[in-house]
Amino acid sequence: MIRDFLRAALVSLGLMAPAWAEAPFIVVQSTTSTQNSGLLDYILPGFEAETGIDVRVVAVGTGQAIRNAVNGDGDVLLVHSKPAEEQFVADGWGVERFDVMYNDFVLVGPKSDPAKVKDGDDIVAALTAVAEAEAPFASRGDDSGTHKAEMRHWAATNLDPTGASGAWYRETGSGMGATLNVASGMNAYVLTDRATWQSFGNRGELEIMVEGDPRLFNQYGVILVNPEKHPSVRAAAGQRFIDWLTGPDGQAAIASYKLDGEQLFFPNADGS
Amino acid sequence: MQGFASEFNSALGLILTGDSELWAIVLLSLKVSVFAVLISALIGMPVGAALAVARFPGRRMLIVLMNALMGFPPVVVGLLVYLMLSRSGPLGVLELLYTPTAMIIAQVVLVTPIVAALTRQVIEMLAEEYSEQLRSLGVSRLASVPVLLWDARLALVTALLAGFGRAIAEVGAVIIVGGNINHVTRVMTTTIALETSKGNLALALALGAILIGIAVAVNAMVSTVSLRAEREGLRHA
Q: What is the percentage of chain B residues whose pLDDT exceeds 90?
């Protein structure tokens, strides 16, 4: 009753499309890397044209995306931290997790390379060298997928960089792009996903230092938020999106997205 | 920096040639902030005026609180409104999160204290000026509120402009409750934040230039209107 009244008031003010005119839509909680790289802008029109379902993307860090999904503020979760995703499903918040695509992380740093790690392919050795040289290192520090990956690599070095927080170890608490801006400004090393790096426009003196370590693998997964926990979840439309993304059309769309001639994401859903 | 300047020029060119997507963003920014300011005026002006004329215990404290709320961090407002509108929040069933309406609500929370506090100041001065007149006419303090508001209308325009300035320039709250969704809740400030995080600093700066342009245009327009109104008023007087 109140809801109908409010809706009518908002419709009459022109702030909300009337329900009958509103195209069906889903809200996807996703990460900044899929948006900042331009991937979603590239692949979503295909899905929207085929199904008439509008996809509304909220791009935040993986940690925040998961928390928003737990609150029921999204229908589909598209993120990149497998352990956290599996926990999300195990806790009952998600229905099932599917692999979608992968790319990799790279360690970028200033051309002057004070820690002497250039052309390496061992991320743990490189981080150890950065810590020993006490060279500036910019960390996301925001519980995002990239931050979680970075902390796993630090754990493998048996060093705790957070002890040097505020000294050579700088936690920005911001998104990937904002953190790259910081690193660019202070000529710091920084771990980033390749897609965001590839599409980043303010590199300054930064370039890729370490790449190709199998441990730098970066898997993306997609999960339908559990409608049993949140009845508001648009389950049918959300499932349709997941089926498309992990099916031949979505996978082909992901593979065909290139920036400066380079493929940024590699589809690897089981079904394809 | 030469590269930056030419990049900035080309970004500005792109904007000035009337890119329809960009103008939709500009329009949404204006729509959200204008609505927010109007609603804030409806709430803030009567409250501010009442605080100016009424006398009751705790009034001073209320005024201090209201003045302090002018500096309420937008991110905190965004978070509070998110918690209210979230599916898990008390107002979740309204399905307002990630809509322009959610952004208007957040901006109303930010702007109302500014409108109320500035109104209180203006009306308090005016009430003092009029006090003998009003008393001789036997008008009670609260009954004088509409008269005072009407007579102070030109000065109150400044309060609205201050509120509009805060609303249109704010990013922390609208990015949380709006979600910066393309074609739905993306406004100028969230676009600037997005382009900055992509490292497209020139484009971000060019968008900032438009934002300033809009602010100047709105202020110039309002100041012209109120100046004209003032002259008319003098002529009739």
A: 62
